[in-house]
């Protein structure tokens, strides 16, 4: 009797220990997911460009969106976004630093005339995103095509490769048992994926046989090389897939079968999920733990206490966000043994962008007016941030299977592996076939954001790359005399702007580190940092014996080509149409430039062609605002040495100089830049020709890319490059003077007005991007946004493409068309 009582007591102790451990584990999972969704959530970036590919000397216009990676609402973490343009040799050619005040920010890149054709890449990320894998950066392929097809590299010959396709000898066939494993004596659902691109459109049939050559199942693939079959493995059997291609038979072993294990199966009914859990282990499902989360936010969890072999659940989806839902079954030891992804497509989340046009058919140079608004599924106003591109359909045929903001935020950004033609799954045709294929996509791709092992058991470490809210100016203070060690000093920062502002002084720490900010300012601003060993009231020279070392910008991350948006260039005729139009535009612009040079009687001194070409390249590389209306190469003309800048400006046609007052004919005082830093006319009195390399003047349409420059722009470039305003120009004991680089200010897209604009009325107007609007705001107060612009001289069909995200986190994408006849 005593022995029996002891055994019962021991069982009770072990049972209590088991429950205690299970409760600890479930608490751990819930705690970690709660922390992830509340504090450690990721950020996502999406970038819309005005068109999918470009030509040499073209402009890339873009709008970048930064959101919370779980809710897709405004990110409360970063306010600083980096956007880079990278060539096919992984060199970063240009980089923009943007301030995200709300959800989006505008930007642009200028493609240089000396660039070579190739597959470039646009990359966008925040500093905080650098703490995780770079595959989560936004990366988009940007093909740049040469106008001379002879210069086109092999890498851009898209069509020839597709036309010469032949069926591969052996398909790359892969098998994905639902939940992860094949288990004996249980009916298993197995997805198939063929990775050869040719099988995206070619159906393949095959048989499943056992080790005794008995036929046990059949399969066939549909679009994207996806297929499915059912199999109930028997003990002591192995299984194979047999396919026949061009008379050749190929045999593939199926994954090994478990004698005991777990099976997780899901049937997606749209408004709800049927989840079936089975076990063939001796303990059944007792102690197993089922977790459902969406992008890291816990939705459902169930700890099974009973010793049963199966159960079913019905999980409603009518209150969930759209996107990937993740189901995981943990065994009693806390190991994930089954996982399944499911895509939630909730009708309540449907939203539309209404694009109302005043006309469907227009003539050339005719005004078109649009009214944009966003509506939710119930027809209510939906506050949103949008961007819009209007482009020529002949040059850029629309592909409804290509990537857009909806496919990126809801699908590709959360999956391990590329989803081909993702736009197909977001068309209005919500057919059974589409739902079937989307479920196979879920079965053949894994969750990419975290692994359970790292989430549950990795130690939390300080972020190497902190969240950035603005521009931080930091550095180190050291003794100016031996032993030159770091020391704590009083530091002070002053901005020499208009007005001059000074930050309160602060002590650098014991390692000499100091930091000011975050600040928000644009372009660049002249800055002074001072340090004193004691305080700024001291007048003793020895208190200034401090060396100030400013921190450099963090280098860009290493370039990786994983997870890149692919271009939708897929036909030789498509490339030919675009290049033909681009060549036509280039010829017209060249003809106009030549006529303008004749009218303004600019004398060009002949030189050796090679020297002149190199000099022009050098000046063009520094002039980030494109081809000017007029240019004076001061450095190459020795006769100009010693003259004042005012004398140099008098050489330009249309510029009037009276004393220290400057105006451009037909306007007021122009904007004046020195090495891209805005200055006033008073500062020009300190400049002479021997300090100047060249001067660009932008008038009329050429000045439209500048903000607040209706009277034109005079851009002066010094012989020392940007040194006077971008590098350290003065370093003395206890003081350093430099130009702090601010956020990039996007150029304005130039849209000619042939009615009110003189130059627009007389010049030819041909453009592949007819209009670009990077920031459109729909609010409760302004529910409709009215936009108008003029058509150009090209008679064609045009597509209006609007992308964006609502304040509530719903990604938006809409297209419309009109014709110019």
UniProtKB/TrEMBL annotation:
Keyword set includes Cell division: no
Signal sequence range: 1-21
UniProt superkingdom: Bacteria
Gene3D superfamilies the UniProt entry points to: 2.60.40.1930, TonB-dependent receptor, plug domain
InterPro entries, alphabetized: Plug_dom_sf
Keywords on record: Signal
Name this protein carries in UniProt: TonB-dependent receptor plug domain-containing protein
Highest classification ranks of the organism: Bacteria, Pseudomonadati, Bacteroidota, Flavobacteriia, Flavobacteriales
